[in-house]
Design a protein that fits this description.
This protein is about 40% helix and about 15% strand. The protein has about 280 residues and is α/β, with parallel strands linked by helices. It has 2 domains: about 60 residues, no CATH class; about 210 residues, Zn-dependent exopeptidases (Aminopeptidase, 3-Layer(aba) Sandwich), CATH 3.40.630.40. Strands 2-1-3-8-6-7 form a 6-stranded mixed beta sheet, covered by helices on one side. Strands 4-5 form a two-stranded antiparallel sheet. Helix 4 packs across helix 9 and helix 8 packs across helix 9. The termini are far apart. About 15% of the residues have low confidence.
């Protein structure tokens, strides 16, 4: 082989090795090598079972939030067995007469004020909407029969709905010096809680009464005159409290208490119920 041919061969070999990478880069089996590598995007990784519908995969990406627990409200039923018991200052302001019983201005009319104050303390209030005194007249019965007259209405309501507390509200016949107290320069109508001791629920009713009485006295010292149990001759002995263990009878104020004094005391009753029973139920 001549020198010229050797040079041509060497030059051709060098040219072949020079163009080889260019040719190889164009071949289909090596396309990936010429493609820039993308950095992974900063996205959350979702692990899902195969063949799951799209809806299920999306739901798995949602953050699990605890369900809100809906608490039942504390429910109170108001009963007014002696619905026309009245307060002399209130009757006198409306009609000019000093009466302790009145068809229009009476304890039954306090139901809206009581419901308002109770609602402010997280208490749901229902009213047994029966004017028992009118019903007594309609049935031609006398005053002592009031508890028996209201009993079927109350029993029916308690069969239809359940309550955390049932309060039969009355007005005491005592005079102002026994039914009024002053605290922080404001006067309040005192309360007394009456429990009939001649029935199976007596101890349950008493426990509710004592708890409420004690809490009221914590809020306004001596606003409660305490719990009075009654049995024996010339008293009812049960006051329909045998229908439910959560029932109490509250005498709020006396014949001489004013509307302002009653309102203040009603506010205290609402606070005391919330403190004694509502908080305990929700814990």
């Amino acid at each position: 082989m001549t020198l010229l041919k050797k040079l041509q061969w060497s030059f051709g070999l060098l040219l072949f090795f020079f163009v080889l990478p260019v040719i190889a880069g164009q071949l289909p089996f090596n396309k990936q090598a010429s493609t820039p590598i993308k950095e992974p995007e900063d996205k959350p990784v979702v692990f899902a079972a195969t063949n799951l519908p799209e809806q299920s995969v999306l739901e798995q990406t949602k953050e699990e939030t605890p369900e809100e627990v809906t608490k039942d409200p504390f429910k109170v039923l108001l009963v007014f067995t002696h619905s026309q018991e009245s307060y002399q200052p209130m009757v006198q302001a409306v009609s000019g007469k000093a009466a302790v019983y009145d068809e229009k201005t009476n304890i039954f009319n306090l139901k809206d004020t009581i419901s308002k104050h109770f609602s402010m303390n997280g208490i749901q209030t229902d009213v047994l909407d029966v004017d028992v005194m009118k019903e007594l007249k309609r049935q031609k019965k006398t005053f002592p029969a009031a508890y028996n007259v209201v009993r079927p209405y109350l029993a029916k309501r308690l069969q239809e709905q359940s309550y955390d507390l049932v309060i039969d509200l009355h007005r005491d016949s005592a005079k102002k010096n026994a039914t009024t107290i002053t605290h922080n320069n404001e006067s309040y109508a005192r309360i007394a809680i009456v429990i009939g001791a001649e029935h199976k629920n007596y101890r349950w009713n008493t426990a509710y009464a004592e708890s409420l009485s004690a809490t009221m006295n914590e809020i306004v010292p001596k606003i409660s005159r305490g719990v009075i149990s009654k049995s024996g001759d010339n008293v009812d002995g049960r006051y329909n409290q045998d229908l439910t263990k959560e029932m109490i009878l509250i005498e709020i104020g006396g014949i001489d208490n004013t509307e302002e004094e009653l309102n203040r005391t009603i506010a205290v009753i609402g606070k005391a119920i919330a403190k004694s029973f509502v908080t305990e139920k929700q814990e």
